[in-house]
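During data preparation, a discrete fold description was generated, and the record follows.
___
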Amino acid sequence: MTRPSLRPATAVLALTAVWLLVAVAFGVAGVLMPVPAWLLWPSAIGATGTAMLACRIAAATGQPVISAFWRRITATMVWLCVGSVLQLGHRLFIADTEELTPAAGACFAVAAAFGMMAVVRLPHPRRTWRAGVATGLDMAIVVTAAAIVFSHFLWSADNPAIGGGAATAAFLMIVMIAGSAAVAAVIKAGVTGAGPVLAPALWTLTPIGLLSPAAWILTPVLAPWPHLDPSVASLPVASLLVSAAAWVQARTNTSGRAAAAQPTIVRRHGAWRSISVVPYLAVAAVATMLTVVTVRNGYLSSGLACGSVVLTVLVVTRQLLALLDNAVLLDRLDSQANHDDLTGLPNRRLFTSTLARRTAPTTVAVCDLDGFAALNDQLGDETGDALLRAAAERVGTVTGRDAVVARLLGDEFGLLVPGGDTLLAERLVLAFRTPLRVDSRDLLVTVTAGVATGAGDEVPDLLRRAEVALQAAKYTGADRSREHSGALDATAQHHAELAAALRRGLELGEFRLLYQPIVELPSGAVTGVEALVRWQPTDKPIVSPAEFIPVAEHSGLIIDLGAWILDQACADAAAWQRGHGPSGPRVNINVSARQLLDPDLPGLVASALHRHGLDPDRITIEITETAVFAGGAALETVRELRELGVGLALDDFGTGHSSLTLLRTCPVTTLKVDKSFIDDLNGTAEQEAIASSLSTIASTLGLRAVAEGVETRDQADRLHALGYRYAQGYYFARPVPAADIAALLADPVPVP
């Protein structure tokens, strides 16, 4: 975008400066030698005419509001120019007198009025009523201070050169209007706020208001030189200030246009930028003047004394309002610091401080929404926020008015009630078994809860105990509650120590993989293996997977542990692929629900396959139904895995959130039928109905069905009769190291 040129405004400003220099030269010459009394008026007319042109340039490059302001200033300069022409004409053709003619005085008064109107009609930002009152008081302080200063200098100045009657009244009116316009400009620029586009120009214009009072005061001083009429002497100076302000406006306008084409840059400003110093400067100016007058005269006139009283009342009122605003602000900040913005409930800070003050018997319960992260991903943040608000209302309905309900964390809520109520957590769970109304639809979201009760010194620790009970409930599943007990503290400490040992074990290489064969029926030939992790800490007994896997899940260490399992299993599978080719076994690798929520998992699998040179179809990722039942990010990860070419198996099928729809939405290749259905095989149709149906479903959908937990020859034979072609269990082989699998592949052992 081409940046607009500042050359016209600069040229006009330079020309106005030339007119001022001409006026100064003529004024000095008149002091040194006799000159006509009207000598300065042509330069004054030229300066005001040039300033008119500057105003037109500023109006042509601004926004509508800015253009309207500068058009009114143009009118001001027009009236000044007309008044100057009339005054010059009167001196040349009617009477060569120093007195301001009524016609010229009227034009000058109209000009001052237009300037006043231009400033007053500027719009101001919308404010609250409190801010409006504060701004009004600031304006009153500035106006009162200006009135005190102006009136003192105007009425105390000895001005015998000014004639009486209409001329004197007109001159005084011009002085007062010009001063008022200057005060209004100061208020607009420094108090009410004129905006970054107009404020610099307003500040440049404000000194003009001092020219008329200065002319009034200097009239007696300049009386010996008739050509130095203060009115005509001040016009070139005023014109130069107007041209300078117009140049500043044009530069601001063109800079704003160029900046609009550039990326927005946010700048941080200190807190002082929001405070107007103008009222303070006005009060300081009045205080200084009153001090000087008192020292010089020994007393204050009645007018100055009354003005100082009015100013003091305004300042005290403004400070009282500021103190009230500060109190309101502190209350608001305190509320924000202790309450949740989304739900309006107390936050963890207020909840814990309230709990710390209790000594009487108290109950604390905490709960969080099951699967909220997945729901938030599915429904979006706005619906997720609405769900949290609805959940907050539901939590509040469980208890009475004496309870404190708080939002402790993202989707975790806390309740504090007086007395011992061990059933509070159970009531929370039951309350959420009714769907929540969210955005004109019903959503069923369950909670898991923990509760703790105590009195005296135990009360401050109840929140921790309730959260320990909540974590214990989560270990056993969702949609359930747990009461705190001393044993849970020991369990929580054990889990924390176990998590630390898990981290050390990963660093020290204490984990290893065993593989349980998956065989083909009825031959028993090994077609695949399932990788199973084992942990043997140094100089300690083996830790059961049933003990350390849940801890790894809840602590997040399952991500690192799963990455190690994946890499080691791919390395072993690649070795079998190189040694046995297509007849080498597929490797099934278990992936937890926590891992499926990791967006890096597909990339991790692809990297391991590439690193070990393994064909994707040589591994199968095993997942549970519950991990993908809700869809969302987990299901998307599963689809990305399938796109890599790896197999997907639903583990323990039939025991979780079983749904035939899941077989359509989730791109699985294998169904692993849970051991509980295999144990029921006894030859009767009723007991074998589920196992038989699952085999038929898998066959119809083109999926592999693998029967888990086969322990006897009769089970193996019956499974084969029901259509199963693959099985896994202790009857065929227990989990063994990778070396034993290699030996088994080289010399197969027939099934008994």
Notes: Confidence is low (pLDDT under 50) at residues 159-170, 258-274.
